[in-house]
Amino acid sequence: TRQMAASGQMKRSSHSMDKSIILPPDEIFRNLENAKRFAIDIGGSLTKLAYYSTVQHKVAKVRSFDHTGKEAVDEPLYEISVQEEVTARLHFIKFENAYIETCLDFIKDHLVNTETKVIKATGGGAYKFKDLIEKKLQLKVDKEDEMSCLIKGCNFVLKNIPHEAFVYVKHADPEFRFQTTQPDIFPYLLVNIGSGVSIVKVESEDKFERIGGSSIGGGTFWGLGALLTNTKRFDELLQLASRGQHASVDMLVKDIYGGGYSCLGLTGDLIASSFGKSATEDREFSKADMAKSLLHMISNDIGQLACLYAKLHNLNRVYFGGFFIRGHPVTMHTITYSINFFTKGEVQALFLRHEGYLGAIGAFLKGAEEDNPNQYSWGENYAGSSGLMSVSPELYPMQRTRSGTFDMLEMDRLDRQLVNLPLLLDPSSYIPDTVDLTEDAMAREYWLSCFEEALDGVVSRAVASQPDLTDAKERAEKFSQKYQHKLKTLRQQPFAYGSLTVRSLLDTREHCLNEFNFPDPYSKIKQRENDWALKFFHKVVKSLESLNWEERQFSLVKGLLAGNVFDWGAKAVSDILVTDPDFGFEEAKQQLQERPWLIDTYNKWIERLKGPPHKCALFFVDNSGIDIILGVFPLVRELLCRGTEVILASNSGPALNDVTYSELQILTERIAAMDSVIQSGVQKEQLILVQSGSSSPCLDLRYVPEQNMQISNLSGHVCYVLLCYLSAGHKNKNVFFIKIRLDKGLATVVRERHTDLVIIEGMGRAIHTNFYAALCCESLKLAVIKNSWLADRFGGKIFSVVFKYEQPCK
Amino acid sequence: MEPTAPVAWEVQKISTIFIRNRKAMDPRQRNADSEDEWIQAKETDRVTVLKTQDTKETCLPTVKNTQRKMPRVPAHLRERALGMQQGGMRTADVARTINCHVRTVRRLRQRYRESGRTADHPRSGRPRVTTPAQDRYIRISHLRDSFAEISTVCNVTYNFHIHSFPWFGMDIGGTLVKLVYFEPKDITAEEEQEEVENLKSIRKYLTSNTAYGKTGIRDVHLELKNLTMCGRKGNLHFIRFPTQAMHRFIQMGRDKNFSSLHTTLCATGGGAYKFEEDFRTMADLQLQKLDELDCLIQGLLYVDSVHFNGQPECYFFENPSDPQNCLKRPCCLDNPFPMLLVNIGSGVSILAVHSKDNYKRVTGTSLGGGTFLGLCCLLTGCETFEEALEMAAKGDSTNVDKLVRDIYGGDYERFGLQGSAVASSFGHMMSKEKRDTISKEDLARATLVTITNNIGSIARMCAVNEKIDRIVFVGNFLRINMVSTKLLAYAMDFWSKGQLKALFLEHEVCQKEIEVNAMCSKTKAVVVRVVTGYWLTFIP
C-alpha cells in the first residue's frame, strides 16, 4: 500500500493523470481480503472487475434468558449481544483500462485470504491482458463467452434489481423514467452495441439466440469519427457530436423536395441521405456537424434494425447496451428517437442502470454456478454502490466527472428466494411506493430535508446503542458523513438508484448504518420498551375482556393505533419520547384523532366482523414494544378466539424500532406463557410467525420469501437462533415450531393456509408503501400519520388516523 | 392536320363542348347539335367554335375576359350590326350598341363586302392534333358511354400517333438528375419539313453529343434502340447530370426557348417539387409532377417488358457465394409480383410491390448512395461517384474493418459467425497507428462495403417481414457498381440460406424516367380532367 501511495503521489506531481491513480482503499476494492471468486470483463475502454467476498459485520442478536422457574422482575426479557456475522456480498468495480495495471498490483497486495486459483475473464480485452493478469495475480485466466456472460448478467440485474430498466427522455426532469420490474422478464431483445452490433433474443434463463447484428456500431462511430474529425477519444467524439448540427451535412427530405413528402408521411426534417450534402456541396464541414451526422446515421441504423428484428420476432421489450450507449445521453437520445420513429411508439427503447456491469456479472455467475446463485436473491447495497449519473449537467450541475472515477456496485446476498406475495391482485402492475419522489419535486425536497434533520438523532442513538465500544462515536461520525453525502447526491440526482422513494431513503439509511457496524441502533430502546410493555399486557387484556363486543372491537383498534404512535422513525414522536419519559399507552390514546378519522372505513370493518370469521389473517407488524405487545397481540388474541388463524410477519433484519423476527419469537413465547389463548394458538399452529424477508421499515410485496433456507445451508442469523434455542434447553415443541418456519416461507404459508385477510400496520408499510396496493382478498391498512407535512398532504393534522378496510371488487 | 397537340386535350375539349351542348336548355341549341354543324364548327377556329356554340349565358365570361383583351363580337351581333348599318344607323352608334370599337364595325362591313360572310377569316392558330376522323371517333365513343374516363377515351384514341416532340422525362433526385429523351427515327419527310428549327436543334444537340457541359453525361451503353413508344419508333437516350447543375439546365431551357415547344415537362423525384417554382419563373415551364414510386414501379415493368436491346433487362447471379463460379445470368420478370423493390438513390426506399398499383413503402434508410459518395468525398477527397467507385474497386476493406477473426481469433462458433464476417465497420480505425497507414482506396472500399451490407441486411429483414422472396435492387447507386451488386447478391443468398433471390437491372439508373415518358399522355389527361372548366388556360 505504501508503495502504491508513493507512486500515486509521485505521479500526481508529474501531472500525468492519464496513467496515474491513487486508489482510495476505503472506498474501492472493499473487502478484498476475503475475496473468494474473481471475474473480469475487459472492454475496449473500461475494465469491470467482479468479486465475491464475505463481509464480516456486526449483527444484533437477541437471546432469551432462561426464565423457567423464577420470576425475575428486574431482569430484562432477553439479552442483546452484538455478534460478528459473515454475509456474502458481490462487488463490482468499473475503471478505465488505463488503470488496469495499478489495480492489479493493488489487488495482489491485498489478496490474502483467497484460495481461488482461477479468474473468469470475458470481453474483447481479455486476450490482450491475459498474460498481464496471469503474471500479476498468479491466477489462471479462464475465458468465458462474451455474449452468454452478457445475457446472464442481464437476466440477473433484471430479476434482482428493481428499477433497473429505464426510458430516457431528453430535457425532462427527471430525464430517466424507471420501469417497474415485471414478474416475467422473458422474452426480450437485447441489442448490444459494442464495436459492432449484436441483436440477441432471450427466451429464458438459458435459451437465447443471436438473431442478427450489424457491423455498423460503436466501432464505426469511433473509427469513422476519428478519420473525419481527427478526434482520438470516444468521449470527445460524443462531445463534439452533441454540439453539432447534422442538417448541414445530411441531405434532408426538404433538401430534395423543398418541403415534406406528405403522401409518404415523411416530414421535411427527416434525413434522406446521411452525409448527402458532403457529396454535392463543395465546402468545408465543421467537425461537430460531421460527428453529429455520423451519430445520427449509426443510431438510426441500429434503431431501425432493432425494430425490424423486434417486429419479426414479436417482441416489445428491447434493451440497449454496450459501450456505445453506456449512459451517454446523446446516443440514448438518438436511439430512443429512432426507435420511436420506426415503431411509431409501439416499442420503447429501454436502457439499464447497470448496463456496464452485465458482462462482469455474467462471467462471475458462470464461475459461481456451482454455488447455485439463483437460489438466493440479491439486493443492491445503496451504501456501497455509485448511483447512476445525470447526463445533463445543466440540470444537475454538482455531479462527479465521468472519467477517472471508479464506479461501483455492491449487492448483498439475501439468503432466501424472494417471490411475489401470492395475494397480489396484479403483480405486474403493483407499485409498492405511494409517491415517486423522482417525479414529485416538492415531496422530494421535503423528505430529503426531513431525513437530513433526523440524522443527528439517529447518530446519537447509534452511539448510545453501543456504549461499550470506544470507536462507536467515530463510526457514527463516518456514517453521518456518508449518509449526508448520499442525501446530497440524491438531491442532485434523484434517479441515482432508480426511482427515489421514502422507502429507498429509509433503506439507504439502514444500509449505511450496517456499513459502519451499527446493526441495530434501536436495540436497547426496543428491549426497554418490550420489557415495559409486557408488564401491562395482562392488564390490557383484562380491561378488554370486561368490555362488551362492540366496545371491545373499537378498543382493540384504538389500542392498535395508539401502539402505532410509538414509532422512533417519526421525528415528531421520537422528540416526544425523548423529552417525556412518562408518555405511555394511555397518553398515546389521548393523542389520537377522534372519529371520524382521516380515512375511516371502521363501520364496514365492524359489519364484516359480525359475519363469519376469517379463515386466516396475514398480519404485517410494525414497531416493537407497546405497539406489538399492547396493540397487536390483543387483536391477535381476539382473532384467534374467533377461530381465525394468524400469520404474524415481521422483519427479518432490524430497521428502526421495528420488531424483528427473532425478537418476536421471544415475545410470543413470553406472551404465550402469560396468556392461554396465545399459548394454545402457538401449540395448535394457529399462530404462526414468519419473516417478511426485508430489513426495511417499508414493505415491498413483490419480494417476500418463498421458502427459507434449508437446514444445511443455514447461515448466520437463523442458524444462530436455532442453536440458541436448542442450547437453551427448550422444550421440544419450540424447536419443532422453529423447524417448520425454516422450511416454509411467507409465500408458502400464505398459500397453504388460504389467507383471506391481510392487515398491514404502520406508516412505512401502509402509507409510504402499499397504500394503493390492490389485493385479491380483504385488506386492512391502518396507521397513524405521525408527520405533519404528510398529514397536511392528506388533508388532516398530525396523529390523524388512516383506517382503510377494503374488500376485493368482484 | 398535323398531330402536334396532345390528344387528351382535344378529347377533353370535344367532350366538354359536346356535353355542354347536350345539356343546354334552349331547344334551339339541342336541334343545332347535329353532325354537320360539328364538323363545320371544327373547321373554323377553335375559339370561334366555342362562341358559335355557347351563346349568350353559356358563354365563358372568365375565358373571354382573361384570355382576350379585345371583346370579340358574337356572330349574332355581327349579323345585327350589319342590319343596323344597312338600316341607316351611324357606324359610331352601331359600335356603341354592340359595345365594340368603331373600327371593328368598319372591318365587319368590309369583310362582308369581300366575302359575303360575317365570320372571321380562317386563322392559322395552333395546329390540330386530332384528325376529323378521330374527332368523330371520340364523339361517338363518348355517346356510347358518357361516363367513360377521359383517360380511357384517350387510350383508345392514341393509336393514332399523336405526341408532340420532343419527348422528355425527368427524374430530379437528391444527387443526380436523370433525363430520358426519345429520339424518333421514323420521321417522315413531311414531318421533317414541318419540324420547328428549335426542335431539330435540340434533337441534334442531344443525340450527337455524349457529354453536355462539364457534368452532363449520356450513357451511350444504356441506349435502347428501335423502340416503339406511343406508336413511334425511335431510340431512348439516357442522360444524367448532378442536381447541383439544375439551375444551369433550366437556364438552358430558357435560352433554347423550350417553352415554345412544350408548356409542360413531366418530372418526378423530389426535385420536381423543389424546382417547380424555378422552372416556372425562369423558363416559363410547368412541371407535371408524377409520383416517384408509381413511376419507379411502372418504369421497372416497362424496361422489363421492352428488353434491353434484345436481352432481358433483369439479371441475377448464379452461385453468388462462390466468387470463382459466380455468373451473371439474365432473367425475365414474367411473373414479377410480389417483389421487394429496393431503390438505392441518395437514400434508400424499400417498397413491397404486390401488383402494379398495390404497393407500399415499407421503410427506408438514410444510408444510401449519397452517404457513400459523401463519406468518400470527405475521407479520400474524391469528387465524383466514378472516381469513388474506381478507388473502391482497388481497395481492401479488411484493412479498415474489424473482422470477427480480428476479435475472436477465428470463427465465432457460438453464434455461427464466420471469421471473415465484418464485426465492426471501420473498427480498425479506432487505433491511431492504423489510421495513419491506411490508403484511400481501402477507405473507399470499406465505405462501399459498409453501406452495401447495411442496405442488404435491412432489405433482407424487410423481405422476411413481408414474406417476399424476390428482391429487386435498383437505383443510381448500383450503376457501374459491380462490387455492390455482387455483394448484395452474396449477402441475400448467404443470410437467407438461398431463400432470397436478388435481381438487378441493366438500367438501374433510369427506369423512373422511362415511365414518366410513357405515362405522359395518360397522366396529362388526368390533370386536364381535374381542371375541367378551365381547360382554355392550357391553350397557348
Per-chain topology:
The complex is a heterodimer of chains A (810) and B (540).
Chain A: H1 2-13, E1 37-42, E2 46-64, E3 78-96, H2 100-110, E4 118-122, H3 126-137, E5 140-143, H4 146-160, E6 165-168, E7 176-178, E8 188-193, E9 197-202, E10 208-214, H5 218-229, H6 234-243, E11 251-252, H7 253-257, E12 271-273, H8 276-280, H9 287-312, E13 317-321, H10 329-343, E14 348-352, H11 358-367, E15 378-380, E16 407-413, E17 418-419, H12 441-465, H13 472-492, H14 502-515, H15 523-545, H16 549-565, H17 571-579, H18 585-591, E18 599-600, H19 602-610, E19 616-620, H20 626-642, E20 645-650, H21 661-674, H22 676-683, E21 687-691, E22 704-705, H23 716-727, H24 732-743, H25 746-753, E23 757-761, H26 763-768, E24 778-785, H27 788-794, E25 800-806
Parallel strand pairs in A: 1-4, 4-5, 8-13, 13-14, 18-25, 19-20, 19-23, 20-21, 23-24
Antiparallel strand pairs in A: 1-2, 2-3, 3-16, 6-7, 6-14, 8-9, 9-10, 11-12, 15-16, 17-22, 24-25
Chain B: H1 7-23, H2 27-32, H3 35-43, H4 46-53, H5 61-67, H6 75-86, H7 91-98, H8 102-115, H9 132-144, H10 150-157, E1 167-172, E2 176-184, H11 189-194, H12 197-208, E3 211-212, E4 216-218, E5 224-229, E6 232-242, H13 246-255, E7 264-268, H14 271-274, H15 276-283, E8 286-289, H16 292-306, E9 314-318, E10 327-331, E11 339-344, E12 348-353, E13 359-365, H17 369-380, H18 385-394, E14 402-403, H19 404-408, E15 422-424, H20 432-437, H21 440-466, E16 470-474, H22 482-495, E17 501-505, H23 511-530
Keywords:
heterodimer; A: 810 residues; alpha/beta; seven-stranded mixed β-sheet; 18% strand; disordered N terminus; B: 540 residues; alpha+beta; eight-stranded mixed β-sheet; 23 helices; 17% strand; elongated; kinase activity (chain A); manganese (chain A); Type_II_PanK (chain A); ATP-binding (chain A)
Quick recap:
Chain A has 810 residues and is of the alpha/beta class.
